[in-house]
Design goal:
The radius of gyration is 16 Å and the shape is globular. It has six helices and four strands, in the order H-H-E-H-H-H-E-E-H-E. A hairpin with a 4-residue loop joins strand 2 (about 115-120) and strand 3 (about 125-130). The protein is an alpha+beta fold. It has one domain (about 1-160). It has a four-stranded antiparallel sheet. Helix content is about 45%, strand content about 10%.
Length: about 160
């Protein structure tokens, strides 16, 4: 079953077919490095420093000549507005709302560019754009990923 997650991504992203499979097919971090071996498609975001998210390095956005500065601005303005609205309330944790702003903006971009967005939930989430897939295929990808990299339930892929 493990190789299937690699094969499914090779089917969707032809550039990955040119790469040798890693020795350890069950290790999540090996997989994420393999995904970025020849093109930058697997990204990480440090939510406490959400400005550092690698959007501008994404292979598919570069290929489609997307102005990533506009995406950054949209995210920054929405987060700044959220912070300003909650400035006096020291008891509110805005992390969930920041996640929502970030991933909703990525989802809008995905729809505009005929891409699909997958997110790996972990302490600091990973995200990936892939060429547009139908719901059935996206569910298959997430289920294969979760079955392959079930590391004590610490990470879960879902379709955004």
């Amino acid at each position: 079953m493990t190789q299937n997650i690699y094969e499914i991504f090779q089917e969707i992203i032809p550039e990955l077919k040119q790469q040798d499979l890693p020795d350890d097919l069950d290790d999540y971090y090996t997989f994420s490095e393999w995904m970025n071996e020849s093109i930058q498609i697997w990204h990480y975001i440090e939510m406490k420093e959400f400005y550092n998210h690698d959007i501008e390095d994404n292979h598919f956005l570069i290929e489609k000549n997307v102005d990533c500065h506009v995406i950054d601005q949209k995210i920054s303005q929405a987060v700044d507005q959220l912070i300003e609205q909650n400035k006096g309330n020291k008891y509110i944790d805005l992390l969930d709302e920041t996640y929502e702003i970030f991933f909703n903006t990525l989802q809008e971009t995905a729809e505009q560019q005929q891409l699909s967005l997958l997110v790996v939930v972990k302490e600091n989430p990973d995200w990936i754009f892939i060429p547009k897939q139908n719901d059935e295929k996206l569910t298959e990808i997430a289920e294969l990923f979760n079955a392959t990299f079930d590391e004590d339930g610490d990470l879960t892929m879902f379709v955004y």
